[in-house]
Design a protein that fits this description.
This protein is an alpha+beta fold and 172 residues long. It has three helices and eleven strands, in the order H-E-E-E-E-H-E-E-E-E-E-H-E-E. The chain has one domain: 3-Layer(aba) Sandwich (Trna Endonuclease, Chain: A, domain 1). 20% of the residues lie in helices and 44% in strands. The radius of gyration is 15 Å and the shape is globular.
């Protein structure tokens, strides 16, 4: 029997897949197996819009969740397998439980703008901290942040941001 942690992650991934499986509008989503398979947790496509998302999910009772370089690289490698899509994005999805209301945060990254990043740390309030692989080398990350799954799917109300050398700049 899977651990409580595995079941919690499975439930979050399954909910994400169920929301995106909207065949009439061209969306298809599948769970991939995550860590045990060497792939990201979820793959989402829309052939009409020429979009593919490779999603790493984190569900926690803690106040922060981490995505390390191995998980990040695995998520990006999945996108490289599907280079036919012009719009390919790694996504880090976070679900924070326990405190009411639950909080959800979705970060959609520009794949060409993840340089020198070692770890992404998301806090319950949706703030993001990024640690570099090499402290002396500059780093920057472009992303759009969504606080609801519906807004993420509909591509509405996202905040476009850039994280550059420990500063977050709101671009849109």
């Amino acid at each position: 029997m899977p651990s409580i942690f595995a079941r919690r992650g499975y439930a979050f991934e399954t909910a994400l897949v169920a929301t995106f499986n909207d065949f009439e509008n061209g969306w298809f989503a599948r769970r991939l197996g995550g860590t045990s398979s060497g792939m990201s947790d979820v793959l989402i496509t829309n052939n009409r819009r020429d979009i593919i998302y490779s999603v790493e999910c984190k569900s926690t009772y803690s106040d922060k969740a981490f995505i390390g370089s191995i998980q990040m690289d695995r998520t990006i490698e999945m996108l490289n397998m599907f280079s036919i899509y012009r719009n390919a994005y790694p996504v880090f999805a976070f679900k924070f439980q326990t405190k009411k209301p639950r909080s959800y945060h979705y970060f959609v990254f520009n794949i060409t703008r993840i340089d020198n990043v070692k770890t992404f740390i998301c806090n319950r309030d949706g703030s993001l901290k990024i640690t570099p692989r090499e402290k002396d080398k500059p780093y920057y990350v472009w992303f759009v942040k969504y606080d609801s799954l519906k807004d993420f799917k509909d591509d509405k109300a996202g905040q476009t941001m850039m994280y550059k050398d420990k500063k977050i700049l709101l671009l849109h």
